[in-house]
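Local shape tokens

___
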Amino acid sequence: MFDQNRKESINTGIVPNLPKKIIKLLNNKKAVLDIGCGNGWLTNYVSKTAYTGITYSKSEVENLKKIKCKATLLNIEKEKLPYKNESFDCVFASHILEHLEKNKLIEVMNEIKRVLKKGGVLILTTPTEYSFGFYGEWTHVRPYNHGSLPNMIKDFEFTNVDWTYPAISNMPKRFQRLGRFPLFFLKPILWKEVIAWGFKK
């Protein structure tokens, strides 16, 4: 996490499969902030003109600019978001929150809320405790699940909060909640990641 100068070739061909409901939320957004943008894979779901990425990696910023994407070098644990209030109609943050202590999480969430437009959507995705190697990564502070992640979003006064496990997003919520018990051997595959979202009042 802390090698900010590592050299990596960008490959936006490696694209996580987002649930259809998340793709629908991203459709036609005019200003999307991608926190922890990595290789910029989200540009496969939103237009490059609407996209702004944030990362702590200099090489990732350089690579994103090579493919004509706006990108900012920023450590969200130490710096505030360099944008005006209500600048974005969507904020997307993937695999970020699990690295933050509670006090820092509150600061980051308040900053996200500040730059998000009224009615804008916040989309968060994090690994769960079933994600392979979660506790082997020392920078991980805590995992989230279908209870804790949406409840955290609600505590910041977002509305119409919902959630899903991407690998089984087409399944009923009851199965998503309880299926991991009889199918415990599939937890590292089907329940390794959770997505939650909500709208700013």
About this structure: The first helix runs from residue 20 to 26.
